[in-house]
Input
Amino acid sequence: MNPGRARPSPPAGSPRRRWWTWLLAGVVLTVAVGATAAALLLGGTGRSLPPSLLPPLEDPPTIAAGDTAAVFLGDSYTQGWGASEPDRRWSALVAHDAGWVEVNQGQGGTGFVATSGLGGCGLVYCPTYLERVPDVIAVHPDVVVIAGGQNDLTALAADPDAVRAAVDATYDQVRDGLPQARIVAVGPSTAQPGNALIVELDGWVRAAAARVGAEYLSLIDPPVIDQESVAPDGVHVTDAGHRAIAERVLAGIRQP
Output
């Protein structure tokens, strides 16, 4: 063998080149299908959209003296994925019926430990709930609604201690920064069949809420989402689903 000469590559149409091309395509397809199946199994959304199709991240509203300001910290459900208009998302419906001024801090793809990007929230980087606590406190709201967590299910399967610590720290820091605020904990929800992971996460949210004196509302016991209200993407909800979530939350916060 002459080390000074490069070994010629097979022609583009040769059987050897075709074999490697098909093998590589099969590997890529297998990985893609496996990742999607894992996301669905664990309950995560595994979805993204072009930023132009996402519900907009909004500027804070004007809060006048005497207004009851309510910050909604959440994920794509809170941001309004699936709703036909921003005022038909569940957080807007709750704020309207409760007489609150909605400060929407929903960012798709995020959670207590989950971050997101352009295809999930519309920005290059969207931080975790815990990282956004200073933004919540800066509003000086009367009410804080912390909702979701289903985007953390993949992380929960890998490192449950880290997820539980983030849930606890989120509620602790909101309470420390807003000692007089009303805090409402809305547990995780999913348009897919529930599993042990989401039940476990819901339990951690409930425990954290109790520890800081927050109200807790479950969306999975009983399930608030039915198949008729699931959006075409299979993971978000339509206007009917947003209305169902809003009604569950309103019923809970109105209880004496």
Observations:
- The beta strands are 69-74, 101-106, 143-147, 182-186, 215-217.
- The first helix runs from residue 15 to 42.
- Residues 51-253 form a domain with the Rossmann fold fold (CATH 3.40.50.1110).
